[in-house]
Amino acid sequence: MNLYILRRLLLIIPTLLGIMTINFFIVQVAPGGPVEQAIAQYQGLDSGNNNRVATGNNSDIQTTGESKYRGAQGVDPEYIKALEKLYGFDKPLIERYFLMLWRYAQFDFGDSFYRNAKVTDLILEKMPVSISLGLWTTLLAYFISIPLGIKKSISHGSRFDIWTSTLVTIAYAIPAFILAIALIVIFAGGSYYDWFPLRGLVSDNFAELSLLAKIKDYFWHLTLPISASVLASFATLTMLTKNSFLDEIHKQYVVTARAKGCSQNRILYGHIFRNAMLLVLAGLPATLIGIFFTGSMLIEVIFSLDGLGLLSFESVINRDYPVIFASLYIFTLVGLVLKLISDISYTLIDPRINFEGR
Fold first, then answer.
1. pTM for the complete prediction?
2. What does the alpha-carbon distance between residue 311 and residue 328 come to, in Å, rounded to a whole number?
3. What is the rounded CA–CA span in Å between residue 199 and residue 221?
4. Over 60: is that where the pLDDT of 222 sits?
5. Residues 8-21: what's their mean pLDDT?
6. 16, 68, 129, 191: most buried, per Cβ within 10 A?
7. Phi, psi angle pair for 111, to nearest 5°
8. Cα 311-312-315 angle, rounded to 5 deg
C-alpha cells in the first residue's frame, strides 16, 4: 500500500502540471486581459478631457498605431509599457509560464492585481466562509441521504419509495441558484416573509453578542444558503445509497445471515452497511469539491457571502490572474489529495481491496 500511495503522490505532479499549463495558455491568450481593462478604464475616466491622459510628465497622448491591445490606439506607449511592467506582461509568455511554475512550487502566489493584498492572505481570509457553507452542507446532505436511502431500499416499491423518489427527482432537477432565489423571495424579505437576513455570514454587531447569541446569529445567516445547497445536492447521494443497499440485499451472504436468524438491524448495519457504503465513499471527494468550491460559487454570489466562490467569480470577471491561477492550483491539489484519501479509505473499510496489486 505504501508503494501505491507513493506512486499516486508522484502522479499528482504531472496531473497538476498539465491542468495549470492548459489553463495558463488559454487565459493568457484570451482577450480582455488586465492591461486591456486598465486601458479601457483609463480612457473612460479621461474621455471628457479632450482625449488627454495624465502621464507622469503630463505629455500629450501619442498615437501608438498598431497595438497588440484592443482599444490602445491613441494611448501613450510609455503608459502601456508601465502597465505591462506592473502586471508582468513585459516578459515573454514562456518566461512568465516557467516563472509561475517556479513560484507555485514554493506556494508563492504573488499579489492580487486589484485588491492590494497577497493572494495567500485573500484565500485564507475568504476560506472560513466557504468552509462554513461546505461543511454544514456536506454533513446535512449525508445525514439526510444515507438514512433516507437505507429506508428506501428496505421499502423498495412501496408508496413511501415512490413518493420520496418523486420528491428527490424534482429536487435534483431544480438548480441550486433557482432554489436560492426562491428562498430569498419567500423568506428573506421578497414577496412574502422577512424571516432571514439576505447578506453576509454574521450580523454587523456580531462582536458585541454573547456566545449563545453569536451561535444563533451564525446559523440564522446560514439557514437559507445551506438549505439551497442541501436540496440541490442530496438527491444523487440518496439514490446512490439506495441502489448500493439494494445490490447488497440480494447477495448470498445476506441470505445466509437471515437463515442463521440474524435480526434486520444486524443484517443491515452489521453486514450490508460496510459493503454498500463503498460506493458512497467513492463519491465523497467529488461531493466535497463540488460543494466547497464549485457549487458554493453561485450560492455565495446570490447571498453575498464573501467566500472563495465569490472571490474566484470576481477574479475571473476582473482578470485577476494571480487569484485565478492560485485558486485553480489549490482546488486541483485539494481534489487530487481527497481522491487519494478516498482510495485509502477503501482499504480500511474493505481489506479485500488491494490497489497495490493492480
1. 0.70
2. 12
3. 8
4. yes
5. 88
6. 129
7. -110, 150
8. 85
Q: How far is it, in rounded angstroms, from Cα 15 to Cα 336?
A: 9
Instruction: Write out pLDDT tens, residues 269-298.
Output: 777 877 777 767 766 666 666 666 555 677
For 182, left (φ over 0), alpha (ψ -120 to 50), or beta? Answer: alpha
The 3-class secondary structure across the chain, one letter per residue, is CHHHHHHHHHHHHHHHHHHHHHHHHHHHHCCCCHHHHHHHHHHHHCCCCCCCCCCCCCCCCCCCCCCCCCCCCCCCHHHHHHHHHHHCCCCCHHHHHHHHHHHHHCCCCCECCCCCCEHHHHHHHHHHHHHHHHHHHHHHHHHHHHHHHHHHHHCCCCHHHHHHHHHHHHHHHCCHHHHHHHHHHHHECCCCCECCCCCCCCCCCHHHCCHHHHHHHHHHHHHHHHHHHHHHHHHHHHHHHHHHHHHHHCCHHHHHHHHCCCCHHHHHHHHHHHHHHHHHHHCHHHHHHHHHHHHHHHHHHHCCCCCHHHHHHHHHHHCCHHHHHHHHHHHHHHHHHHHHHHHHHHHHHCCCCCHHHC
pLDDT at 41: 67
Model pLDDT, residue 74: 59
| Residues 245-263, mean pLDDT to the nearest whole number | 82
At how many degrees (to 10) do helices 119-154 and 211-249 cross? 50
Instruction: Read off the pLDDT of residues 174-207 as tens digits, 9 standing for 90 and up.
Output: 877 788 888 888 888 767 778 888 777 788 788 8
Grid coordinates of 272? 450490508
Locate 148 and state its grid cell: 433516507
Give the pLDDT band of residue 42 (cuts 50, 70, 90).
Answer: low
Tell me the C-alpha distance between 170 and 252, whole Å: 35
